[in-house]
Design brief:
The chain has 172 residues and is mainly alpha-helical. The chain is 34% helix and 7% strand. It has one domain. A three-stranded mixed β-sheet has the order 2-1-3, with helices on both faces. The longest helix has 14 residues, at 146-159.
């Protein structure tokens, strides 16, 4: 049971020591809340925000205080598995879901992973998991939600030679 007297954020300082976070191609930084874009600040009346990776990082750090973790996140609201996240992206598929002008997120994520892992010797790291959250853009569509998500996720994993990657955002 969660003790409501203790904020989960009190453990964030420890997690910052153990968890590095790369978001949308930016440089790795210690895990922390983020500063939203001005339009989000205004719309939602907030100064900072976070994704579920915060709590995942806090829990990993608590359970494995002597280990280091690297989270690589690539996210874009409203992006579908059929379009932006499709490893077999085509102009026709992107047009079908009205994502022709949006980025090819699957390939951007792979570039993020490659760029970050090149900073380490292969013997210094082990890829342990892929964590995925797909939002509502695929719900109720011909290509989704669940069957498409499972097919595309399998395709993502297969495309990495059965290595796992941490992608998009995390959920507990």
């Amino acid at each position: 049971m969660l003790d409501i007297k203790v904020s989960p954020f009190c453990h964030l300082e420890n997690a910052k020591e153990n968890v590095s976070f790369v978001e949308n191609g930016n440089e790795a930084v210690p895990l922390n809340v983020t500063i939203p874009a001005d339009w989000k600040k205004k719309k939602f009346q907030l100064d900072s925000c976070f994704g579920p990776e915060i709590f995942f990082g806090i829990e990993l750090s608590k359970k494995h205080p002597n280990k280091k973790f690297l989270f690589i996140k690539r996210a874009l609201g409203g992006a579908s598995l059929y379009g932006c996240w499709n490893p077999n992206w085509t102009k026709e598929k992107a047009q079908y879901v009205n994502e022709l002008s949006r980025p090819k997120l699957f390939h951007k994520l792979l570039n993020d992973v490659d760029r970050e892992l090149l900073k380490y010797k292969k013997s210094d790291y082990q890829i342990m998991a892929m964590l995925w959250v797909q939002g509502e853009s695929d719900s109720g569509q011909k290509w989704g939600p669940l069957p498409s998500m499972l097919r595309k996720t399998k395709s993502v994993i297969t495309s990495q030679n059965n290595c796992s990657i941490i992608s998009q955002t995390l959920i507990l």
